[in-house]
């Protein structure tokens, strides 16, 4: 079943490709300034958190070496994840006109959403690398870990996007709940604080952090860019398995609901 | 195999108010199709066991009122939604023109949208690159192609959408009511493009409210009513049946409404002429809608109004020149009434009176009438009206205007004409010109040019269309004509006299061989066609391959089908089709001794080798 689906997706790769390009073009309006504006959001977030946690609240984790860089490392992939999930909750409803009029597999829509946000994420990487150089941190062999981590996150995000995009057609309030859930999830993941901070937490919070898949992904990025010694192979392996499971499950649910989508949107 | 096959296709939607979506997440994921599980009352049957197929190269028009399921049908063929039961089988690339420019993104340029839309419709990038210039020039948007689509006018937007869609070059083209939106020039372009598709043997399914388009473009019409297939077949016949049904429903509704209005209307409702006008002014906001109501005391009541054609059967669709009889059934509820006036009026859709008269005007006096059922009829031997919908006034009143029952515009009929002349009545007329004005018929254009059979077929459509536009009656006959003799000429001349144009179906060489044996035809097809074309009485020669001219007859849709020889009507191929479409069949007996076979015998006899 999964293979049939994947085959169908590869058959529509030109469509997916052009739709991703269209999405990005519409976002950047084809200009360099447009690209810059789209970076503004994570940069602002970065600024706010840095100021708040290092100067105002003076949180312990705010004193981490190169804290802005640390934040940047986590915020970029998180933005990819959360924008993909949020956008996928409306992508089928807003693309419904298209589904009703043109014949193409509906999953193209969430796939395009996740891919467009991925490209967006990748386009921000040069800025991250520039920051690293600015702080005197140089990429090395360990930086290559970035690629498997991205791949794992891709399947994990894709699975959730498929699940949410199809369910949200039937449960329209899903997208409202989702915004709150993602805020909670953001704080429950080591994005603004390092994982080492966990030692100070009560046990139940520590468990919560352990079972959160995003914890391990974020640590992966931080390991690849900042803390070369801290790549946890076993955790990533488990994450890879989990991501595949989520992907297959998400696709299965999507398949079950496929025929109802055109009628309900 | 036919490119489009529907077998027992049903589609059910859930009624929105009942849509509890899913009972639980579990039932959603593990449950079967919800529409099947839902109680019957909660389900809207959008399509109910529809079966038909479209042959390769066929053009089918789907007609029906709003909400009848036409668009659902198209979506099922396109594969956009799936049938609840039954199967839809298609073969070949499909382009569904359900909405023009669906998927255009307003922020990006027309150029990029052409690529994206083309890919959505199934083209590859190379194909689009190859056709790009053509797509843009067809849409007439060369200047604006690099501007964002949001700056386009709605017309430009549509033209670009249509242009992309038709350049997909599908095997099957599905069109949903999209041509109605463009301006005149653009819709001509669209229709031209559709004809082009037809000539190239593509299969087309067209959903439209434009019955003219169905009649002009389709070789078959399907009438969907309330999700069921009510009728299918010759477009003219199906369209007439559909219009008749619509008119019947309107009549029923109006009579019903008229009755209700009267029920709570007091005696003063009996309106005199002046009040009537005043009331008319009150509704003057919609001047083009003919007034429709009913008033009167009903002491004498018009119970039913029926229209009959010349052949005596009930009919509500006529052609100019047909006979029509209006019959009103009356119930007289009072005794001793005399000096009754019966009136009839015919109004066009704009409310203009085309003709009105009554028995008083014409000096007819009625005597005393007994209570009980009676009737009167009004016969029109030749209904010389131009095409359109017409409304009837029928009235029974006293000479002083005291109305017993007055039906205003409650009954309607329709006149269909191939000739799109204008006005109200069609006056019998002839054109003549002084010698200084050379006028020739355009109908014979292009005949002399040597054409391949295919081009000939394509051109036949144009030829027939012109004939139709000009209101000429087309006569059709067929034969082998491999040894022309005076008997043939006589039949052809008489055939031509039955109408205005004679289309001659000529059996191809293979077809003659199959019918008459290996030694025939004596002259090959090209020569036979050349000889026949030279005859004054023959306007068009069309070769056909099949054993019978049935397919050709279906294409030509003649007004008169002529058969030479001793044929019984039920033996004549194509009789049903022609008569169903309102045409007639004429048999012209052959002259004794005048047959190709006897000429061949004579030649053999006289030129026999003496040895």
Provide a descriptive summary of the structure in words.
The complex is a heterodimer of chains A (265) and B (611). By secondary structure, chain A is mostly helical. Chain A is 77% helix and 0% strand. Chain A contains 11 helices and no strands. In chain A, helix 4 (67-94) runs antiparallel to helix 8 (174-187) and helix 7 (146-170) packs parallel to helix 11. The longest helix of chain A has 32 residues, at 233-264. The mean pLDDT of chain A is 87. Chain B has helices at 25-30, 34-37, 70-78, 110-120, 125-139, 154-166, 184-199, 211-217, 235-263, 273-282, 453-469, 486-497, 509-516, 525-533, 550-556, 575-580, 596-606; strands spanning 4-14, 43-54, 59-63, 85-90, 94-97, 172-176, 203-207, 220-225, 228-233, 293-295, 300-309, 317-318, 324-332, 340-348, 353-358, 372-380, 388-398, 403-415, 474-479, 501-507, 540-544, 560-564, 584-588. Mean pLDDT of chain B is 79; it is low at 257-289 and 443-457. In chain B, strand 8 and strand 9 (228-233) form a beta hairpin. Chain B is globular and about 85 Å long. Chain B has 611 residues and is an alpha/beta fold. The interface between A and B is medium-sized, with 26 and 31 residues.
List keywords for this structure.
heterodimer; A: 11 helices; 0% strand; B: 611 residues; alpha/beta; six-stranded mixed sheet
What is the percent of helical residues of chain B? 25-40%
Q: What proportion strand of chain A? A: under 5%
Could you list the spans of chain B in which at least 5 consecutive residues all have pLDDT below 50? 257-289, 443-457
Oligomer: heterodimer
Broad structural category of chain A: mainly alpha
Biggest interface, chains and residue tallies: A-B, 26 and 31 residues
Uncertain residue ranges of chain A: none
Q: Kindly state the percentage of residues in helix of chain A.
A: over 70%
Question: Alpha-carbon distance between the termini of chain A?
Answer: 25 Å
């Amino acid at each position: 079943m999964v293979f049939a689906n994947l085959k169908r997706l590869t058959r529509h790769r030109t469509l997916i490709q052009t739709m991703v390009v269209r999405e990005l073009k519409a976002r950047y309006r084809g200009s360099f300034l447009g690209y810059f504006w789209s970076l503004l959001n994570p940069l602002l977030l970065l600024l706010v958190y840095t100021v708040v946690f290092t100067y105002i609240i003076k949180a312990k984790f705010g004193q981490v070496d190169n804290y802005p860089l640390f934040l940047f490392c986590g915020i970029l992939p998180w933005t990819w994840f959360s924008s993909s999930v949020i956008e996928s909750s409306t992508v089928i409803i807003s693309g419904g006109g298209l589904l009703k009029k043109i014949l193409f597999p509906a999953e193209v829509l969430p796939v395009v959403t996740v891919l467009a946000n991925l490209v967006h994420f990748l386009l921000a990487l040069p800025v991250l690398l520039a920051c690293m150089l600015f702080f005197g941190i140089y990429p090395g062999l360990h930086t290559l870990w970035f690629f498997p981590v991205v791949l794992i996150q891709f399947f994990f995000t894709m699975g959730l996007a498929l699940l949410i995009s199809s369910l949200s057609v039937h449960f329209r309030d899903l997208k409202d709940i989702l915004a709150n859930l993602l805020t909670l999830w953001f704080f429950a993941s080591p994005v603004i604080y390092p994982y080492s901070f966990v030692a100070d937490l009560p046990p139940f919070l520590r468990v919560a952090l352990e079972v959160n898949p995003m914890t391990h992904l974020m640590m992966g990025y931080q390991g690849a860019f900042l803390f070369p010694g801290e790549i946890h192979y076993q955790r990533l392996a488990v994450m890879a398995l989990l991501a595949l499971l989520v992907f297959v499950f998400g696709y299965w649910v999507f398949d079950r609901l496929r025929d109802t989508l055109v009628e309900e949107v | 195999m036919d490119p489009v096959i529907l077998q027992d296709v049903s589609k059910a939607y859930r009624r929105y108010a009942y849509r509890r979506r899913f009972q639980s997440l579990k039932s959603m994921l593990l449950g079967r199709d919800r529409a099947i599980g839902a109680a019957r009352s909660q389900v809207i049957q959008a399509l109910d066991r529809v079966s038909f197929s479209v042959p390769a190269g066929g053009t089918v028009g789907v007609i029906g009122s709003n909400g009848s399921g036409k668009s659902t049908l198209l979506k099922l063929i396109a594969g956009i939604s799936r049938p609840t039961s039954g199967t839809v089988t298609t073969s070949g690339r499909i382009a569904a023109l359900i909405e023009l420019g669906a998927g255009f993104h307003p922020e990006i340029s027309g150029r990029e949208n052409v690529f994206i839309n083309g890919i959505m419709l199934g083209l590859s990038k190379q194909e689009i690159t190859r056709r790009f210039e053509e797509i843009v020039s067809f849409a007439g948007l060369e200047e604006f192609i690099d501007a964002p689509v949001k700056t386009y006018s709605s017309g430009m937007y549509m033209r670009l959408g249509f242009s992309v869609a038709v350049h997909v070059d599908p095997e099957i083209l599905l069109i949903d009511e999209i041509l109605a939106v463009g301006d005149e020039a653009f819709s001509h372009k669209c229709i031209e493009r559709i004809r082009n598709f037809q000539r190239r043997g593509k299969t087309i399914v067209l959903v439209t409210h434009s019955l003219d388009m169905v009649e002009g473009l389709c070789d078959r019409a399907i009438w969907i009513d309330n999700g069921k297939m009510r009728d299918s077949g010759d477009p003219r016949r199906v369209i007439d049946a559909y219009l008749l049904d619509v008119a019947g429903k309107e009549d029923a509704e109006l009579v019903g409404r008229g009755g209700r209005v009267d029920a709570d209307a007091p005696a003063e409702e009996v309106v005199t002429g002046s009040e009537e006008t005043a009331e008319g002014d009150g509704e003057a906001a919609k001047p083009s809608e003919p007034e429709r109501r009913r008033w009167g005391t009903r002491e004498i009541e018009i119970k039913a109004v029926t229209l009959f054609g010349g052949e005596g059967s009930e009919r509500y669709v006529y052609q100019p020149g047909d006979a029509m009889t209006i019959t009103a059934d009356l119930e007289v509820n009072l005794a001793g009434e005399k000096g009754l006036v019966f009136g009839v009026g015919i109004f066009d859709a704009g409310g203009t009176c085309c003709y009105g008269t009554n028995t008083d005007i014409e000096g007819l006096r009625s005597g005393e009438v007994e209570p009980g059922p009676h009737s009167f009829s009004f016969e029109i031997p030749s209904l010389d009206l131009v095409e359109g919908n017409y409304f009837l006034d029928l009235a029974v009143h006293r000479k002083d205007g005291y109305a017993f029952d007055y039906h205003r515009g409650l009954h309607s009929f329709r006149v269909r004409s191939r000739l799109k002349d204008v006005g109200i009545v069609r006056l019998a007329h002839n054109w003549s010109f002084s010698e200084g004005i050379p006028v020739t018929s355009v109908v014979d254009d292009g005949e002399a040019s040597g054409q391949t059979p295919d081009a000939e077929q394509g051109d036949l459509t144009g030829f027939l269309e012109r004939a139709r536009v000009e209101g000429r009656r087309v006569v059709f006959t067929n034969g082998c004509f491999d040894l022309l003799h005076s008997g043939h000429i006589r039949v052809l001349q008489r055939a031509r006299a039955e109408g205005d144009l004679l289309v001659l179906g000529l059996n191809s060489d293979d077809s003659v061989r199959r019918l008459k044996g290996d030694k025939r035809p004596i002259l090959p097809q090209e020569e036979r066609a050349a000889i026949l074309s030279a005859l004054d009485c023959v306007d068009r020669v069309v070769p056909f391959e099949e054993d019978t001219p049935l397919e050709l007859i279906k294409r030509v849709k003649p007004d008169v089908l002529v058969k030479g020889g001793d044929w019984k009507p039920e033996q004549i191929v194509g009789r049903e089709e022609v008569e169903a479409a309102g045409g007639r069949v004429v048999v012209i007996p052959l002259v004794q001794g005048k047959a190709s076979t006897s000429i061949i015998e004579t030649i053999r006899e006289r030129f026999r080798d003496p040895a």
